[in-house]
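Morning - 2-phosphoglyceric acid inputs below, output right after.
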Amino acid sequence: MVYKLVLLRHGESDWNAKNLFTGWVDVPLSEKGVEEAKRGGTLLTEAGVTPEILHTSLLRRAISTANLALDVADLHWIPVKRSWRLNERHYGALQGKDKKQIRDEYGEEQFMQWRRSYDVPPPPIEAGSEFSQDTDPRYAGEPIPATECLKDVLERLLPYWDEEIVPDLKSGKTVLVAAHGNSLRAIVKHLDNISDEKISGLNIPTGIPLYYELDENLAPITPGGTYLDPEAAEAAIAAVANQGK
Ligand SMILES: O=C(O)[C@@H](CO)OP(=O)(O)O
């Protein structure tokens, strides 16, 4: 049995375009992001990949991206499950801050440690501050973080992966996960068994479906999966890596 999984990072958001740390701040897609999302749907259709169930985060950039892509693919009707456990990494006190300014103020090393190290979280966000989510009703009763490193993301994501996504995969359904740069990096790390060091060099582009076929142990048949537009993915990956420069 081959299991089929599609990972889709949301299209460009308003804050991606402005180069701001976003995390759990619920910003919309930019116009370019809307187009990227629709193109994601076209790429699915052209590749003959047909998602049968959707999992998204609770953030509108992922939800809107999935809706737009699935609408184009005429699959807007498939069942959906949502969880904060698929949210972007919580960026703590960096949420709402300009990436270039933070890089200039703290230096490249600290900037990259906060942005891409596996286990060093940024400083926590202050409860009640402008970009904090502590009173947001969608998270009521949930053990939500005040900052996260990628290791924290993987730890909060894995229960959802094991309890909700794996059973859907094992039922034979093609599963679409619409989420975020860092929550998808966590899934890719888990699937491809990438080391804590090597994961810092992995970036996920916006709006380009990453298709995996998995064996009976849920190990990727093609390591790293396949971007449905490999050329566009290569350029977009470089752009993500260079943010803040
Ligand atoms: O700001 C963020 O939330 C993320 C994704 O856009 O940024 P980065 O790629 O720097 O981790």
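Note: The first helix runs from residue 14 to 18.

O.
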